[in-house]
Design a protein that fits this description.
Blueprint: H1 13-16, E1 27-29, E2 34-39, E3 42-47, H2 49-56, H3 59-79, H4 95-120, H5 124-135, H6 140-163, H7 165-173, E4 192-200, H8 215-230, H9 235-242, E5 253-257, H10 270-284, H11 297-304, H12 317-324, E6 327-330, H13 331-339, H14 362-371, E7 377-380, H15 404-407, E8 435-436, E9 449-450, E10 459-463, E11 466-474, H16 485-488, H17 524-540, H18 545-553, H19 557-560, H20 563-608
Parallel strand pairs: 6-7
Antiparallel strand pairs: 1-2, 2-3, 4-5, 4-11, 8-9, 10-11
């Protein structure tokens, strides 16, 4: 007898698994190249060599073969024994339990059809057919089989994860416990745990020189930063009180952030997510990252794009952001923003207001000078330039805010703008609890940087939604800390034997501070929810996760499968190799493209902020017209430095 190669797609689900073993003796062939294979009183239809080969010569055919073979492998794992007993040790539900649950799901679908019929005034038959169509099946039996298979696959996925959790976690993190790079078939996602505060701004962020901010928004931004600088409240408490997004209810916690590309985009806006990556790679780890994972190349290349790819100005993405650096905004600019938020009337008698009068409102002069860019920034105690109080010729766009010559070094002083300016005592911002010294990446002895209570630098960025103030609770670089990256993303919960504890020091024996117990709670279910979020992230980082199941279920090929079936599996192996290569290429390409998109935005912004006749940032000193004192009125007339048509 000539063996026929099997096309699993034409067989019924229950007896398909039997076809994976030897061909058997009861085989007949008709003129349509279809053979029948009998197993007991069941009959199995299979395709012969000619049609089989045609299918494997197309990508669509190989995909269909893979899908059907996976279905058979998974069903076979539950049905090797006709009695329905388990074949995989550790699977939580046996076949009979799954069938009963699937039957309940069918009943639920019928109930849905009945309710839809009553609601829509249609017949039950019409609504039942709609349910079947939605599920991609023809009748009740096929629906039952679909539910059975979906539940079986879910069980196999969970079983595989339980058997390989540590291996999968290392791949997901990209590093082993001792910080070495993990080689894998899938691109790791480098998880970051982040908190943020959002102060919304309504202008959308596309006008880099004439942007406006409302009085209420200016006050909120100023007050939020002031609370952080005072250091009385934690970052989370300020987020809960001030943040204007849904994360406020969880103290600013945005969960696990990863560099997965979906639909050509990251999970969060570029400025937010890439700003954190760039800060972490460029500043925070400016020194230590040289020794991270083969001198830092693996992480930096994945997060900042491959060294060999170039941006529009012929720099690598990594070099472009490193050269650009991190902007430093003086704290006093935030304080003054709140103080002048409501100044809209011209206080200097006889000074003509420009046609576009909002452009010279003090809050908008400050907004456009310091905040209305999409650069990554930190907040320091650095001095303001002379431009803050004079109408100078130097345009703010030409000032390098990363240089100490701009700030002059030392402690900032701020003269409050009001109707009768006084010269107050200098405000020593260094004495505020939020400003920390010896911050990695900021080495000037006279400089302090705004941080949270745990000394995490507060990173800022402007997106189309407003100003984001962010801290990194745990990053892909933080594997050498007291709490390793591997321990931080534990899937155990406090009280379980495998939950990590401190091994030495004052905290020895105590539970580690991890993602799971990041928000302390008396409700254990919250810990379970966060632990499940870690599991889901680890299971979901590899878009080709099914291929892992396939490899596991076919690892004993020579023993378990017939010769012709092994030919089929080998063809599928080739298909999987191509798909994995494509997925990794798409991920790498997608990451670079979002980096380049962000960088090109910054280049566009720079060009708009250069001083030209029609498009320029007004000197910050133009706000002097809103105070009492001698002012050159010609500055506010047509052609003057403070005139905007």
């Amino acid at each position: 007898m000539k063996k026929s190669k099997l096309s699993i797609g034409l067989v019924t689900s229950f007896i398909a698994a039997m076809a994976l073993s030897a061909c058997g003796s009861k085989v007949t062939k008709n003129d349509s190249n279809v053979a029948s294979f009998k197993y007991g009183d069941k009959e199995l239809a299979v395709l012969t060599d000619e049609i089989y080969d045609d299918f494997l010569n197309s990508a669509t055919g190989r995909q269909k073969y893979y899908d059907r073979v996976m279905e058979v492998l998974i069903r076979n794992a539950f049905q090797k024994d006709p009695t329905g007993s388990d074949t995989l040790k550790g699977v939580k539900k046996n076949y009979n339990q799954i069938v009963n649950e699937a039957k309940d799901n069918v009943k639920g679908s019928k109930q849905t059809a009945k309710q839809n019929a009553e609601t829509n005034g249609t017949s039950y038959k019409t609504e039942w057919q709609a349910v079947l169509k939605e599920k991609g099946v023809k009748d009740e039996e096929e629906l039952l089989q679909k539910y059975i298979y979906d539940l079986e696959k879910e069980q196999i996925e969970d079983w595989y994860y339980d058997e390989h959790e540590e291996e999968l976690k290392s791949e997901y993190l990209g590093v082993t416990k001792d910080g070495k790079e993990v080689k894998t078939d899938a691109s790791s996602r480098f998880p970051y745990h982040v908190r943020h505060i959002l102060v919304k701004v309504e202008d959308g962020g596309s006008d880099y020189v004439r942007g406006t901010i409302s009085s209420a928004q200016a006050k909120l931004l100023s007050n939020t930063v002031e609370l952080l600088a005072q250091g009385v409240m934690t970052f989370g408490e300020v987020a809960q009180k001030k943040s204007e997004d849904s994360s406020a209810s969880s103290y600013g916690d945005v969960g696990i952030m990863a560099n997965a590309i979906s639909g050509g985009k990251l999970g969060m806006v570029n400025e937010f997510q890439l700003g954190i990556y760039a800060y972490d790679a460029i500043k925070k780890n400016a020194e230590t990252s040289k020794d991270v994972i083969d001198k830092g190349l693996a992480l930096d290349q994945t997060l900042l794009g491959k060294e060999t790819k170039e941006t529009t100005d012929d720099k690598t993405v990594k070099q472009a952001f490193a050269d650009r650096g991190i902007v430093e905004i003086p704290y006093s600019a935030f304080i003054e923003l709140g103080d002048v938020a409501e100044l809209e009337a011209n206080w200097e008698t006889g000074i003509p207001m420009p046609d576009n009068k909002a452009a010279v409102y003090p809050r908008n002069l400050l907004w456009n000078t310091y905040f209305n860019t999409h650069n990554i920034f930190v907040i320091t105690n650095g001095k303001r330039s002379a431009n803050a109080e004079t109408i100078a010729d130097t345009d703010p766009a030409d000032i390098d805010r990363t240089e100490s010559t701009y700030f002059g070094g030392g402690v900032d002083t701020y003269k409050k703008y009001d109707a009768d300016p006084q010269t107050p005592e200098p405000i020593n911002y260094s004495k505020l609890e939020g400003f920390k010294e010896n911050v990695p990446g900021f080495t000037r002895t006279d400089e302090r940087v705004l941080c949270d209570k745990q000394n995490n630098v507060i990173i800022g960025v402007r997106s189309q939604f407003g100003i984001h103030l962010m801290i990194v609770e745990k990053s892909a670089y933080d594997f050498a800390d007291e709490v390793s990256l591997n321990d931080y993303y534990t899937t155990a919960i406090p009280g379980e034997p495998d939950y990590p504890t401190y091994k030495e020091g004052e905290k020895k024996g105590q539970d580690m501070e991890t993602y799971v117990n990041f928000i302390n709670s008396v409700n254990k279910s919250e810990y379970n929810t966060r632990a499940e979020a870690v599991r889901s992230a680890i299971k979901g980082f590899d878009s080709t996760y099914d291929y892992r199941l396939y490899a596991e279920l076919t690892k004993n090929r020579e023993k378990d499968f017939s010769e012709s079936t092994n030919d089929l599996l080998s063809a599928i192996d080739d298909y999987i190799d191509v798909q994995r290569h494509k997925n990794n290429h798409d991920q790498e390409k997608g990451m670079f493209e979002v980096w380049q998109t962000y960088y090109e935005l910054l280049l566009t912004q720079d060009s708009y902020r250069k001083a030209t006749e029609k498009n320029r940032i007004l000197p910050e000193g133009c706000k002097i017209g809103f105070t009492k004192g001698g002012v050159d009125k010609s500055n506010y007339e047509q052609g003057g430095k403070c005139y905007v048509k």
